[in-house]
Specification:
homotetramer, 292 residues, alpha/beta, Rossmann fold, N-(1-d-carboxylethyl)-l-norvaline Dehydrogenase, domain 2, six-stranded parallel sheet, three-stranded mixed sheet, 13% strand
C-alpha cells in the first residue's frame, strides 16, 4: 500500500483524506488542532505529529485555510520543504494567492522536489462525494493526476505555471460572488414589485441560467436561507481579497470584483462572517427596506 | 382562419409574425417603415396602413423597440387603444418599463379591453425557432396563452400586475449583463496571468456555470467576437437604463446594475453601440492594457 | 410698493419670502398647507388661496420640494401658467430636473411670459442670512437679477437654457455627496488605525481642503452628528436620482454618482430618511464594524 | 554645522535636501542613480556612495518612490538599519504602506534607534517653497520636528504609532482622487448640457469648494490640461493601491476608493501613466462621448 501525506483535516480536507484512504493509500495526516488527526486515525488513517511527517511520505497533499496557514506548514524545520525527500511532490489544493503558489513552486524546484497547485471547486458534500472540480497547474501536475482523480469528477490542466491554477480558482469564486450579488439585487427589485423571489429564481434557473450556481444559490437567496454555511462568508471575503490582490499585481481593473469584495467585507462588518457567503444578499434586502 | 394583428416587424418581430402565420393565423402586420410590412405581405401575411389596422382584428401583438415606440403605436387616432374593439386584447411583448406597462393596462381596463405584458428572452434565432422564453402578466395573460405558446418554448405566469412581467424581463437582462461583466473581468485577469481565456471559459461553462449564458457569451467574450450583433449594445444600455429607473421608483439600490449600466453607456460613448452587447468586454480588456 | 408672489414656504422658502418682504416687496405667498401662509401673513405678508394668486402679481418666485410639486403649482386652472399675466415672469428656485425646467421654459415662451431657473446652494440658515449662492439661467434671468440679489450673496449666470442652471445645481449636490462619502470612508480607515476622526478632519479642513464643505460636513462626519437635519437625507437621495436621470438622458456614465445615489437610497432603506444627508456615513461606519 | 543624511533626490527629495542644506545642515545625500547625487554635491551638499553613508550621520531622512525602494535602502549591509549609529533616527517621508512603516518602527526599536514617519502633502513646487504639509507619527517624531519645520508650513502630530501618519497621508490622497473623479463626472455632465466646464469649475471653486484641491485640480480638469505632470498618474494608482491594501487589512469597505483605484489603473492601462493624475478625467470624457 502506497503512503501519502495529507495536511489539513478541515471540512474539506477530512472527507478528501478519507477518500484517499478508501482509494487504497496509507494516509499520514497532520492537522493543526490534533483532535481531528486522531479522529482520522481511528478511521484507519495515521496521525502525524508535524507537517513534516506527512511530507516524509514523499507525496504530500495540503488543504488548509489560507496563505498564512500554507506558509506555516511549508516552512520551518517541521515543515514540508524541509522534510520532503528528494524527488518528492507537494500538491497544494488550498485556495491561496497565485503569488504564494509561484514562490513555493520556485522553492521546490531549487530543492529538487516537485510542486503542483490543484485548488478545487465544490463544497464539503462534493468533497465527500468525489464530485470536486479540480484546476491543476505546475511542474508536478502530471504526477499528481491519478491522486486528483480519486478526489474529484474532473481535472483541468492549466500548464506549467502553478499560479495559473490559483488564478482560475479565484476567478471562479469571483464569478460566483458576482452572480450572487446580481441575483440579490434582481430578487429585491422583483419582491418590491410584487413578484415572488422564488418565481423569479425558478424562471432563471430553469431556462438560460440552468446551472448549479444559479439553481442552488438562487434558491438560497430567494428563500434567504444562509445557514448552516456551506462556505463561510468570511472565507469568501478572504478569497475576493486575493482576487483583488492578484488584480492589482496584474494591473487589471476589476470593478465588479471590488463591488462584491466590499459587499462581503461590509457583511462581515455587520457580524455575518459565519453565515454562508450567499448571506451577502441580506444587506441588499435591508438596503431596499425589505428587512430590518 | 382567425385574424390577428402584429405590430413591429424588426429582427425579433418578423420571425414571430411569420410563426403566427404558420400557426394558422391571418396576420395583419404593421411596421413603421413600410417596406418590411410589404415584404411580410409577399410571404402570406397582410400589410396594415397604421397600428389601428392591426388592432382592429381584436387581438393585437406588439413587438417594438422601446417605450417611445410603444407609446406611438398605442396612442392617437391611428393607435391601438382607439381601434381595438371592445373585448379585444393587446399583448405587449416589447422590453419596456413596468411603469408604461401599468399605465397601458389601466387604460385598457378603462376602455373595456384587455392587456397582457409578455416580454421575451431570446435572440432572433430563438424567435425564428420558437424557442423564446416568455414572461406573461396582466389581466389578459390567460387569453393570450395559446398565442404565446406558438411563439416560444415556455410561458411563465407572473400574475395580474402587467408590470411584473416587465420587471422580471428587465431583471433577466441585468443578470445577463452582470454575468458578462464578471466574465470580462475574470478572463482579463486570467489572460494577464498567462491563462488562456478559452480554457477558463471552457472550465466554467462545462462545470458549475453549464448554462447557455455562460456557454454562449463566455465563448464570445473569450474570443472577443462581438459582431454581428445578436443584441445591440445600444439596446442593452437602454434596458439597463430601464432597470435603474425601476430600481429608483422602487427604492432598491442596485450597485451591480449601476456598474453594468455605466459600462454599457461608456461603451456606447466609445462608439460601440452597434456591436453585440457582449462587446462591453472590450473596455475591460483595454483598461487592463491588453488591447489598444 | 411692488407686489411679488412667492410659492412654497418650507424651511428654505419661508426665510426667503421674509427677506423679500424686508427688501420692500409686498409678498403674496402661497403654501400647500395653509397654516404657514397664514403665519407669513401675520408677519406682514399676504396669504394667497392658490398658486395663481401669487402668479397674478406678474412676478412669481417658486421654491418647492420636487418636480411633482412644481408641476402641481405650474399647471391647472389655479396654476402659475394660467394666471401669470402676459409679460410676467416665473422664477423657479427649486432643485428640479433640467428636463422639467426646459419644458416650463418652453411653455412660458409660448404664452408670452418669461421663465428663469434659479436654484440655490445653501441651507436654511444661509437662506435666512441672505447668504445663498444662486445659479441663474433661462430667458428671464436678467429681469430676475435684482430679486435674486436680495436673496443671496452671489448670482452666477449660466445662459439662455434654463435647464443649465439646474444641471449645475445638481452637479454641486453630487460633488458634496461624493465628498461626504469619501470623508466617511477615509475617517473609518483612520479610526480603525487608531487615528482620531477629528484629527484627520482637522488636518484636511485646515490645509488643502480648507473650504466650507470639508470643514462643516467633515466636522459632522467626524463627530457622527447627523441631527437635526440641515438637509434631509431623503432629499439628497431625490437629488442624486435627478443627477442620474440627467446623466442617462445625456449619456454620461457617472459611476461616483451611482455610488452615492445607492448609498443614500440604502440609508433611506435603513430608516434614515430624516437624518441630515451626511448620515450616509453611518452605513460606512457600520460596514467597517465600528458601529452597530 | 550639523550633519544630516538624505536618501532619495527625486522631484520631491531634491528641493527638500536643498532646503535642509539652506537651513544650515551639512547634507550627505544618496540617490540610486548617482548623477543626481553628484549634481547635489555641486550645489554644496555631499554625495554618499550608499544609503548607509547617509545613515552614518545619525539623522537620516528618506524620500523614495515606494515600499520596495524604501525596503531596499533600509535593509542590507549598506542599508539604513545596519549603519545608523545607536541613538540615531530615521525619518521616513515617503508615501508608503502603514504596514511597512510599522515594521520599520519595530526594527528600529529593537536596535535602539528611533523611527518617525513623516509623509507630506504637496507637489514639487511646494517642496521647493517649504510649503509642504507634514503628517508626523512614531516614537521619533518629537526629535524630528525642527527638521520637518524646515521643510514645510505645518506639521501635524498623529501619535506614537508610525503607521498612523501613513494612513492619514493615504487618506488624503484618496480624498483628492475622489474629488477629481467627482469633478470629472460633473463637468462632463455640464458640458453635455451646454454648460461651460470652466464656468462650473469657477462657481464651485469660488463658493463652497473654495480650497486648493477644487481650485487647482478643478481648473486642470475643466481645461483638460494634464501635462506636465505635477504628480504622475502611475504614482496615484500606486497610492490608491496602498489605500485599498490598508483597507483590506483593516476590514474597511471603501467603495469610492475602489472606484478611483480602478479608474487610475484603467487610465494606466490606456497608456496614461505619465500624465498628471488628474488625467483620470480623460476616460470620463471619452466614456461620455465627448472626446475620442
Amino acid at each position: 500500500m502506497k503512503a501519502l501525506g495529507f495536511i489539513g483535516l478541515g471540512n474539506m480536507g477530512f472527507p478528501m483524506a478519507r477518500n484517499l484512504r478508501d482509494a487504497g493509500f496509507e494516509v499520514v495526516a497532520f492537522n493543526r488542532t490534533r483532535a481531528r488527526a486522531e479522529r482520522f486515525a481511528t478511521e484507519g488513517g495515521r496521525a502525524g505529529e508535524r507537517p513534516g511527517d506527512a511530507a516524509a511520505t514523499g507525496f504530500v497533499v495540503s488543504m488548509v485555510a489560507d496563505d498564512r496557514a500554507l506558509e506555516e506548514v511549508a516552512h520551518g524545520a517541521d515543515g514540508i520543504l524541509e522534510n520532503l525527500p528528494s524527488g518528492g511532490i507537494h500538491v497544494s489544493m488550498s485556495t491561496v494567492s497565485p503569488a504564494l503558489s509561484r514562490r513555493l513552486s520556485a522553492l521546490h524546484r531549487e530543492r529538487g522536489t516537485d510542486y503542483a497547485a490543484a485548488p478545487v471547486f465544490g463544497r464539503p458534500d462534493a468533497a465527500e462525494a468525489r464530485k470536486l472540480w479540480i484546476c491543476a497547474a505546475g511542474p508536478g501536475r502530471a504526477r499528481a493526476r491519478s491522486v486528483l482523480e480519486a478526489l474529484g469528477q474532473g481535472v483541468f490542466d492549466f500548464g506549467e505555471d502553478a499560479g495559473a491554477a490559483n488564478v482560475v480558482k479565484l476567478s471562479g469564486n469571483f464569478l460566483i460572488a458576482a452572480a450572487m450579488e446580481a441575483m440579490a439585487e434582481a430578487f429585491a427589485l422583483c419582491e418590491k414589485n410584487g413578484v415572488s423571489r422564488e418565481a423569479a429564481a425558478d424562471l432563471f434557473a430553469s431556462t438560460f441560467f440552468s446551472c448549479p450556481i444559479y439553481r442552488n444559490y438562487g434558491a438560497a437567496i430567494a428563500a434567504e436561507r444562509y445557514s448552516p454555511a456551506g462556505f463561510r462568508l468570511a472565507l469568501g471575503a478572504k478569497d475576493l481579497g486575493l482576487v483583488l490582490a492578484a488584480a492589482r499585481e496584474s494591473a487589471v481593473p476589476m470593478p465588479a470584483a471590488s463591488l462584491v469584495h466590499d459587499r462581503l467585507l461590509a457583511s462581515a462588518g455587520r457580524g455575518r462572517s459565519d453565515l454562508d457567503w450567499a448571506g451577502l444578499a441580506l444587506s441588499v434586502s435591508e438596503e431596499a427596506g425589505l428587512r430590518k
